């Protein structure tokens, strides 16, 4: 069987596990940006950027649904709950439709709209309207029928002039007609007409651009693009102006007998006689700088969707107190960088373009995840630090954290409180000066602690690009104009420090720079056979593995420096590609791939992130691709991988993507110093368990032998890192019988040993 077939079977296996909610994956999504809401009699359903949550108003139970459960990582545009069929329908900007059966939680992905021969930018699903078991989908090209019983699409109505595509924002059923609010007037047709695919059956009854239409009681209302609500007059068969809003309407719906209209800063609630019974303004909410997106009502409770702060409730009768019911998560889904500490995870959201341009500047805060949940430190508390691109925890003091700002300097956080913003006035950091002496722009990116507690920092686009903050609080700078071709144009990526204390710096124009302060000497690895053999000089990430090799990720592929100790002896260090064989053809591993990050796990495997091709897991020498995770075969919400971090104690791999944070629970934990903490799980292995047995807390290169109670050997292996797996078979041939099995563990030198037991129940 060739490798391509094996790889296909691997992906099939991964997809099956993913579809069955594989517990190896965990999602850490933000639910703050509410796109749409829907209701049943006892629950509200809220759609965020690419995840859902619902709250039962009777039990107060909140349920979340994200890509781990089967949703797509694409951007959601609308959601609708059908009480009659007990199904929740999710519409996406790319035309994808996902139907969730609330009875058993099963999901169906319907790709008919995606596959339509239409421009990709007009497939957005804007609204759902249900009538007699048929959902009418308002899309950017027209209207589509979807049968909620058969789960099949029906007719598509192209109702523009001469049957052209037309953007439909909303539909409503009134007096036997379907009314459609479009960007070219309000159209209508008799719902009983069997030939609605004929555009001639649709009549334009109002011109202009319309953003919403709905019925309230016995009346039909529509709102135009300027925010003017119109009431339909049956006598004149036309719309007439009724209420002028202060802003354009973002959402208009009927809920519990009320007309609810949402603008950016106000929510208007009208009764069936169009009398304003309640108004909610953004300045009434306790959080600052809030924007409304939508609102709905169940009984006396108003559910308010916001762009920045999730879902908030208030009462219709009083409306003076507000409660946020959003599931706690990170502030945003687009996490640019993260750092794992023994008991916490830190993330930042600032970014820069592919050419290291931080503009427009980001004004986001910082988030921390720990056993107590998520702590979101808002922008107002970070001392003005903008576009924070990296974060690092002091390995000697987990309560001391530093966030790099690619504009403002270096932010020091102590006990979760931002304390100092190091900049050009209070540290050795320097500002760009090309715009004059008064221009302040301090571009700090890569950071790394060495084993003596020094914090090394890169300062881009200046002469003294390498800085160090000593534990004493003193700063020191190192000039790099002799090694960089153009220091004022250079941008730094990440830093790695090897066991010899050599600092390895990635740059966007000079490849990799090596530096060791013992002799204050810089060396460069760049393009050209005689200068380092990189594919391009734009290096984005570097990592040092357990075999003392430097893995280098560039915008055009991967290179390996076989021994970092060559820095001390070789005038010119040379890298090499990894050549693999596929179907008897030699090729370069990750040829031409834009590599964004490389992380080394406890077994020396490499987790490699790319700019648009997902995540790769390769063996220690790179010859075997163990996994290639994408949005198609895994819960990854995006193929754009921003950063990867690994919890060395648990083996959990955290993956920051452009559309959410997710983790994969691997088995590659870091090796232990001794066998005192070795353990086996699960134990006992019960009949319903289908996974593997893990033996953790191991030394590196430990020998593990498993025997039955009679001493017959059934499995033997050598550990790579701190954990191994046993599939409970006798050397892969057959499942072992019920009974107690002995696990004999010994160090590589045989000095230290440990014996454990596991019970297997078939």
Please outline the helices and strands:
Blueprint: H1 3-19, E1 25-28, E2 36-39, E3 43-47, E4 52-56, E5 62-65, E6 76-82, E7 87-92, E8 97-101, E9 107-110, H2 112-115, E10 125-131, E11 134-139, E12 143-147, E13 152-157, E14 168-174, E15 177-182, E16 185-190, E17 203-206, E18 210-216, E19 219-224, E20 228-233, E21 238-244, E22 251-255, E23 258-262, E24 266-270, E25 276-281, E26 292-298, E27 301-306, E28 311-315, E29 323-324, E30 337-341, E31 344-348, E32 366-370, E33 373-377, E34 388-394, E35 397-405, E36 409-414, E37 417-422, E38 444-449, E39 455-459, E40 466-469, E41 475-478, E42 492-497, E43 503-507, E44 512-516, E45 521-525, E46 539-544, E47 550-554, E48 557-561, H3 566-569, E49 579-582, E50 585-588, E51 595-600, E52 606-610, E53 615-618, E54 625-629, E55 641-646, E56 652-657, E57 660-665, E58 679-681, E59 693-696, E60 703-708, E61 713-718, E62 723-726, E63 739-746, E64 753-760
Antiparallel strand pairs: 1-57, 2-3, 3-4, 4-5, 6-7, 7-8, 8-9, 10-11, 11-12, 12-13, 14-15, 15-16, 16-17, 18-19, 19-20, 20-21, 22-23, 23-24, 24-25, 26-27, 27-28, 28-29, 30-31, 31-32, 32-33, 34-35, 35-36, 36-37, 38-39, 39-40, 40-41, 42-43, 43-44, 44-45, 46-47, 47-48, 49-50, 51-52, 52-53, 53-54, ...
Pfam families: PorZ_N_b_propeller (PF21544)
InterPro entries: PorZ_N, Secre_tail, WD40/YVTN_repeat-like_dom_sf, WD40_repeat_dom_sf
Signal peptide: 1-19
């Amino acid at each position: 069987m060739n490798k391509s077939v094996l790889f296909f079977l691997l992906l099939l296996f991964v997809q099956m596990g993913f579809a069955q909610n594989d517990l190896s994956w965990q999602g850490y999504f933000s639910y703050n940006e509410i796109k749409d809401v829907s209701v049943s009699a006892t629950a509200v359903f809220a759609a965020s950027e690419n995840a859902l949550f619902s709250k039962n108003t009777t039990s107060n139970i909140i349920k979340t649904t994200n890509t781990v459960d089967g949703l797509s990582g694409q951007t959601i545009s609308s959601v609708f709950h059908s009480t009659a069929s007990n199904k929740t329908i999710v519409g996406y900007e790319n035309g994808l439709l996902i139907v969730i059966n609330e009875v058993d939680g099963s999901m169906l992905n319907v790709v008919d709209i995606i596959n339509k021969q239409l421009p990709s930018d007009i497939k957005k699903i804007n609204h759902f309207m249900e009538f007699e078991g048929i959902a009418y989908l308002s899309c950017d090209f027209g209207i589509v029928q979807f049968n909620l019983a058969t789960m099949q699409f029906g007719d598509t109505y192209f109702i523009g002039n001469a049957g052209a595509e037309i953007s439909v924002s909303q539909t409503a059923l009134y007096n036997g007609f379907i009314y459609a609010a479009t960007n070219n007037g309000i159209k209508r047709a008799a719902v009983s007409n069997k030939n609605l695919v004929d555009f001639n059956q649709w009549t334009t009854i109002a011109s202009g651009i319309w953003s919403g239409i709905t019925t309230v009681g016995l009346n039909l209302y529509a709102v135009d693009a300027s925010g003017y609500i119109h009431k339909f007059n049956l006598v004149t068969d036309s719309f007439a102006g009724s209420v002028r809003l202060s802003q354009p309407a973002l959402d208009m719906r009927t809920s519990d007998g009320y007309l609810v209209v949402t603008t950016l800063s106000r929510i208007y609630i009208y009764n069936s006689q169009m009398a304003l019974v309640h108004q909610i303004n953004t300045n009434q909410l306790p959080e600052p700088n809030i924007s409304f997106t939508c609102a709905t009502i169940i009984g006396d409770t108003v559910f308010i969707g916001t762009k920045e702060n999730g879902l908030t409730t208030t009462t219709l009768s009083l409306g003076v107190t507000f409660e946020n019911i959003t599931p706690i998560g990170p502030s945003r889904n687009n996490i640019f960088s993260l750092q794992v500490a023994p008991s916490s995870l830190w993330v930042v959201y600032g970014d820069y373009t592919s050419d290291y341009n931080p503009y427009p500047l980001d004004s986001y805060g910082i988030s921390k995840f720990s056993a107590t949940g998520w702590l979101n430190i808002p922008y107002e508390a970070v001392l003005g630090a903008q576009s924070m691109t990296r974060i690092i925890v002091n390995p000697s003091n987990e309560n001391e954290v530093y966030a790099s700002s690619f504009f403002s300097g270096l932010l020091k956080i102590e006990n979760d409180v931002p304390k100092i913003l190091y900049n050009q006035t209070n540290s050795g950091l320097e500002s760009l000066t090309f715009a004059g002496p008064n221009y302040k722009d301090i571009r700090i990116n890569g950071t790394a602690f060495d084993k003596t507690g020094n914090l090394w920092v890169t300062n881009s686009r200046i002469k003294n690009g390498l800085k160090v903050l000593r534990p004493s609080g003193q700063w020191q700078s190192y000039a790099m104009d002799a090694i960089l071709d153009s220091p004022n144009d250079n941008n730094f990526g990440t830093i790695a420090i090897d066991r010899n204390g050599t600092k390895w710096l990635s740059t966007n124009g000079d490849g990799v720079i090596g530096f060791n302060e013992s002799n204050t000497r810089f060396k460069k690895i760049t393009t050209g056979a005689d200068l380092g053999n990189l594919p391009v000089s734009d290096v984005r990430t570097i990592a040092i593995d357990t075999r003392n090799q430097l893995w280098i990720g560039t915008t055009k592929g991967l290179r390996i420096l076989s021994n970092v100790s060559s820095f001390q002896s070789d005038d010119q260090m040379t890298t090499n590609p990894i050549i693999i064989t596929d179907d008897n053809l030699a090729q370069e591993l990750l040829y031409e791939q834009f590599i964004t990050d490389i992380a080394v796990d406890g077994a020396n495997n490499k987790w490699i992130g790319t700019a648009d091709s997902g995540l790769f897991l390769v063996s220690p020498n790179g010859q075997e691709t163990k996994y290639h995770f994408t949005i198609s075969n895994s819960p990854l919400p995006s193929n754009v991988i921003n950063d990867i971090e690994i919890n060395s104690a648990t083996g959990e791999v955290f993956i920051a993507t452009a559309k959410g944070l997710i983790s994969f629970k691997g088995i590659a934990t870091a090796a232990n110093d001794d066998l005192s903490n070795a353990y086996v799980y699960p134990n006992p292995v019960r009949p319903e368990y289908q996974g593997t047995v893990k033996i953790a807390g191991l030394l590196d290169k430990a020998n593990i032998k498993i025997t039955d109670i009679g001493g017959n050997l059934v499995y033997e292996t050598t550990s790579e890192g701190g954990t191994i797996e046993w599939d409970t078979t006798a050397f892969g041939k057959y499942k072992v019988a019920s009974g107690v099995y002995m696990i004999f563990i010994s160090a590589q030198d045989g000095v230290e040993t440990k014996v454990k037991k596991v019970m297997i129940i078939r």
